């Protein structure tokens, strides 16, 4: 049985030197700012999936470490900018970049991480990877970045609307979260020499895993142990986030329940009793259970897609990571 935490730790150890290499520009002050969000850590899920996808289709993961670093650098760029837009002052137990150096500098640090991602990906050419594959990988990262920005804009626009259709939510979250995990696997598959059928399988798995990962996060925001979660329960309610759970509730609640939900949603200083009442309402409408079922279905459909890949340890490890993400408690 795969120890997923140890697996992710091993893959992270391979990628960390590359993250530092491509984030450093030579100036010590800039280096300190750019390395700050990288050194905050994280699961390094996306680079691990890039390396495993490459290995799963018969490629050499050691040769594509810069590409694995590229997807993590792009992910970190989005986090730095998200923190500014969400006015978050802490991430992973550390002050955010803009909290320390200001919003203008935070934007610039994000931009450095963004450009470093593409520099790292292009450098894969130095490791005997055919240039045609590298070009396809650059195209994949470019397209993913465009969809990421679209997803973020949609998410912000949804905060201004009281009712969101479920298909609108799924489109938004696929772009905002699913697309980069899909891209991580796509890039690994491309650089590893996947055939079209294998590449499609990796993409389906990646998109489903990414969307399920986000929905699971939304569930944990409501039902996790606060000490394990590392932030107050119900943070998304106070921020007014239109998660799948909220979307389902608003579309299925009785008028009085809907009114109660909307009275607290987005109330930044909502007390614990108010938030607990909303969570109880979300249980009553079946919205939390509905989200749990969607996570299960997405995860199973994604894993089934991997039937197109040969049986090997890398494929089994991808499946183990998917299971781990759906079963985690924080």
Strand and helix map with partners:
Elements lengths: L3 H20 L4 H12 L5 H12 L8 H22 L3 E2 L2 E2 L1 H5 L1 H20 L8 H28 L7 H27 L3 H28 L2 H4 L5 H5 L4 H9 L2 H10 L7 H13 L2 H19 L7 H15 L3
Antiparallel strand pairs: 1-2
Helix pairs in contact: 1-3, 1-4, 3-4, 3-8, 3-16, 4-6, 4-7, 4-8, 7-8, 8-9, 9-15, 12-15, 13-14, 15-16
Any overview of this molecule?
By secondary structure, the protein is mainly alpha-helical. It has a single domain, classed as Farnesyl Diphosphate Synthase. The chain is 75% helix and 1% strand. The chain has a two-stranded antiparallel ribbon. The longest helix has 28 residues. The chain is globular. The protein starts with a helix and ends with a helix. The model has no long low-confidence stretch (mean pLDDT 93).
Quick summary:
The chain is an all-alpha fold and 330 residues long.
Q: Which overall shape is indicated by the principal axes computed on the Cα atoms? A: globular
| H/I helix tally | 16
Arithmetic mean pLDDT: 93
Question: What is the level-2 CATH architecture name?
Answer: Orthogonal Bundle
What is the C-alpha radius of gyration, as a whole number of Å? 20 Å
Give the structural class.
mainly alpha
Number of strands: 2
């Amino acid at each position: 049985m795969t120890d997923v935490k140890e697996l992710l730790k091993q893959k992270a150890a391979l990628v960390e030197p590359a993250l530092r290499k491509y984030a450093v520009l030579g100036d010590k002050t800039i280096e300190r700012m750019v390395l700050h969000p990288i050194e905050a850590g994280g699961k390094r899920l996306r680079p691990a999936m890039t390396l495993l996808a490459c290995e799963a289709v018969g490629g050499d993961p050691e040769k594509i470490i810069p590409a694995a670093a590229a997807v993590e650098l792009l992910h970190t760029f989005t986090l730095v900018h998200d923190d500014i837009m969400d006015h978050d002052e802490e991430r992973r137990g550390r002050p955010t970049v803009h909290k320390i150096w200001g919003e203008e500098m935070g934007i610039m640090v994000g931009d450095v991480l963004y450009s470093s991602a593409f520099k790292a990906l292009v450098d894969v050419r130095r490791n005997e990877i055919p240039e045609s594959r590298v070009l396809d990988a650059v195209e994949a990262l470019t397209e993913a970045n465009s969809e990421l920005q679209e997803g973020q804009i949609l998410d912000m626009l949804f905060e201004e609307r009281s009712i969101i259709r479920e298909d609108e939510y799924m489109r938004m979250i696929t772009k905002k979260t699913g697309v980069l995990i899909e891209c991580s696997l796509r890039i690994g598959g491309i650089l590893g020499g996947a055939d079209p059928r294998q590449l499609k399988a990796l993409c389906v798995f990646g998109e489903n895993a990414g969307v399920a990962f986000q929905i699971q996060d939304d569930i944990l925001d409501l039902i996790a142990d606060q000490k394990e979660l590392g932030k107050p329960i119900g943070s998304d309610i106070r921020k007014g986030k239109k998660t799948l759970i909220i979307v389902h509730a608003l579309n299925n609640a009785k008028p009085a329940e809907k009114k109660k939900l909307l009275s607290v949603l987005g109330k930044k200083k909502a007390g614990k009793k108010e938030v607990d009442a909303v969570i109880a309402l979300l249980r009553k409408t079946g919205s939390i259970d509905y989200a749990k079922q969607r996570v299960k279905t997405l995860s199973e459909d994604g894993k089934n897609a991997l039937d197109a890949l040969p049986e090997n340890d890398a494929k089994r490890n991808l499946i183990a990571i998917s299971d781990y993400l759906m079963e985690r408690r924080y």
